[in-house]
Each structure stands twice: as C-alpha cells, then as structure tokens.
C-alpha cells in the first residue's frame, strides 16, 4: 500500500520537464537504491492463441477488424506450450509469458490454461499470462494453478484511451487489475509510447499506474510497432530521447517495480537500449517475436549484455531440485512437434 502522497499530473510533468541529464542521474540513483544495476530480468512471450480478436485496439495486428495478413491460430495444445517453455528456459529466460488474443477467456479454455501454468511452474520458471479481461472466479482459478503474474496494460492515459480502444473501457482494465491483485497474483501493467498521445498523456499513464493501491510489480513500456493495415501504421516515429525519458520517469515514480523494455526493441539500436538500462529499465522480453511483431534475437541481446556488463537475473522457485522439475516436465510433454510458434528460438 502507498505510504507517500499520490502522484499528480503536475508532479509527473515536473519530472518529464527536467533537463535530460539531470533526469537520467536521478533515475539511476533511484534504481540503485532498490535493484542490482548489473542484473536484468529476462522473460519470453509466447502467443498461445493468435488473431481473430474482437477488440478494436488501433495498434494491434491481432484485431479481426484490420487486414494485416496475420494468420489466425487456435489455442495451442498444452504439450506444445510446455515444449516451447523448455526451450525458452534453455535459452536463458526465467519467466514464461503466455498471451491469447481474446476479449476474455471462456470457461472451456480454463482447464487448458491451468495445465499450462502448472506445467511451466514444474520447469522452475515464473509464469505470466495475458488473456484479456478476467472474472473474479477466473482470476482465482489461475491463482490456484500457480500463476505468478498477470499482464493487462492500461495502454495510455484515461483521457486519450477512447481514441485508441472503444470495445472495452478504461475502468474495465482497472477492474481486471483489481481482481488479479485480490486473487494474489502479481500485476504486470504498462503502456505504449507512440500512439499519437501528448506528453500529458504519457505522464497521465504513469500517474494511473503509480497510484494503484499497490503499483505493478512489472511495468512494460512499449514503443509502438507500426503494422501495415492497422489504423496507426503511419504514425510518426518516437524520438529515442522521448522514449528514454519515459523509462526514467517510470523508474522514479515506481521505484520498486521492474521496468521492462517490451515491444519496439527491434527498432532500437544498442545505444538507445543502453540508455534505457541506464534510465532504470531492468527487464526485457527475450526472443524473436512479441506475440506477432519482431523482437531482437537472443544472441543479439547477450552480445549487448556482455558489452554493458549486464547479467540475467536468477529466479527462485518453489519446485524442488532441478532433477525433479525436469522429471515432472518430461511426464507432461510429448514429443516435439513443428506445429507451434516458438518465441525462444
């Protein structure tokens, strides 16, 4: 719970308006107070159900309303998901995130989702899902299955939100975050830079996140990936310094949260990514795709980590020794099959 005064739009704007070098210095100081600056948490994201989403999010190629050439795929089999999780762990990921293009999961999906969570946990990895809106009962079921994190982004400020999404309200998103938190699942929630928002909208997004009853444990900051066929395909590029500034302000406003470089890293050179880490980013998605858009290859990430002296953060699990984990996983996973999208290769 909060022990300090809530953030206001004016106080957030004061941070955004600081001279760049002063802001970077302040953000790095805050970062070092709460985290080891040499460690980065590494996650892999797998699209377990792709496309045909009924939502109208203007940035998303998975919406059924836009013609982006994306091939739709039904919910993956549990064994395929766990095989991909094994490969992600072998590639260095400590958290495995599973995303489905839904407005919300249906009752028929829940047993499969629960088995996916249980199987990934058996590998000794942290688990995360993003499935759209959840009911209280669904959140509780996922919590009992062992889900560690649930991702549900706010995207932007309440004021600008209606320009980007009309098929679910801002309050719908806040309600889902509340249900997830009440179920005992950690919250992953952030937003997107480059939607056409103003500086006040960027500040307003971070105010919303920082003023939640408990700030998210993980805050993904995405740079818009412009996809042909979506309404935002021709948006202006985001200035790298504006993106870095957003990372730094997020770090100062949510000092104990992991700030994740998420979508858009494929568009960033090494220098921009390095500045983001200096600004307080300490988590990345690792692998060739984020759901359906490009992401840097693992070997590129490791090369950059070596240049910067960064290391992947280890994860503590409650699953017992390594041998027991892999024995259980072996019982759950069938032979490899080519019929899945591997986010870790």
From TrEMBL:
[2Fe-2S] cluster binds at residues 97, 128, 188, 260. Pathway: Cofactor biosynthesis; biotin biosynthesis; biotin from 7,8-diaminononanoate: step 2/2. Keywords: 2Fe-2S, 4Fe-4S, Biotin biosynthesis, Iron, Iron-sulfur, Metal-binding, S-adenosyl-L-methionine, Transferase. It comes from the Bacteria. It catalyses: (4R,5S)-dethiobiotin + (sulfur carrier)-SH + 2 reduced [2Fe-2S]-[ferredoxin] + 2 S-adenosyl-L-methionine = (sulfur carrier)-H + biotin + 2 5'-deoxyadenosine + 2 L-methionine + 2 oxidized [2Fe-2S]-[ferredoxin]. Its cofactor is [2Fe-2S] cluster; [4Fe-4S] cluster. One of its GO terms (biological process) is biotin biosynthetic process. [4Fe-4S] cluster binds at residues 53, 57, 60. One of its GO terms (molecular function) is iron ion binding. It holds the Pfam family BATS. Belongs to the radical SAM superfamily. Biotin synthase family. Homodimer. Catalyzes the conversion of dethiobiotin (DTB) to biotin by the insertion of a sulfur atom into dethiobiotin via a radical-based mechanism. This is Biotin synthase. It comes from Biostraticola tofi.
């Amino acid at each position: 719970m909060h022990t300090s005064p809530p953030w206001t739009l004016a106080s957030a704007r004061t941070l955004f308006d600081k001279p760049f070098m002063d802001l970077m210095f302040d953000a790095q100081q805050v970062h070092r107070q709460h985290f080891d600056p040499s460690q980065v948490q590494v996650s892999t994201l797998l699209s377990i159900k792709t496309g045909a989403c009924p939502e109208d999010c203007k940035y998303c190629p998975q919406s059924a309303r836009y013609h982006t050439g994306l091939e739709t795929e039904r919910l993956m089999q549990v064994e395929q998901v766990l095989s991909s999780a094994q490969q992600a762990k072998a590639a260095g990921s400590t958290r495995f995130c599973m995303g489905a293009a839904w407005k919300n999961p249906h009752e028929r999906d829940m047993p499969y989702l629960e088995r996916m969570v249980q199987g990934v946990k058996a590998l000794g990895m942290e688990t995360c899902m993003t499935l759209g809106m959840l009911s209280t009962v669904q959140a509780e079921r996922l919590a009992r299955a062992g889900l560690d994190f649930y991702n549900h982004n706010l995207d932007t400020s309440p004021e600008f939100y209606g320009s980007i999404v009309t098929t679910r309200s801002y309050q719908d998103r806040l309600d889902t975050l509340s249900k997830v938190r009440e179920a005992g699942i950690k919250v992953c929630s952030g937003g997107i830079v480059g939607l056409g928002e103003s500086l006040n909208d960027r500040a307003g997004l971070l105010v919303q996140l920082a003023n939640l009853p408990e700030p998210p444990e993980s805050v993904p900051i995405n740079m818009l990936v412009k996809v042909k066929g979506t309404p935002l395909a021709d948006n202006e590029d985001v200035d790298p310094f504006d993106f870095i500034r957003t990372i730094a302000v997020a770090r100062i406003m949510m000092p104990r949260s992991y700030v994740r470089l998420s979508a858009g890293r494929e568009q960033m050179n090494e220098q921009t990514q390095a500045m983001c880490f200096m600004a307080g980013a300490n988590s990345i998605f690792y692998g060739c795709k984020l759901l359906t858009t490009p992401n840097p290859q693992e070997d590129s990430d490791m090369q950059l980590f070596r240049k910067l002296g960064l290391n992947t953060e280890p994860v503590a699990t409650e699953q017992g020794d390594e041998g027991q984990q892999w024995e259980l996983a072996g019982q759950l996973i069938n032979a490899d099959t080519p019929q899945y999208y591997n986010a870790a290769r």
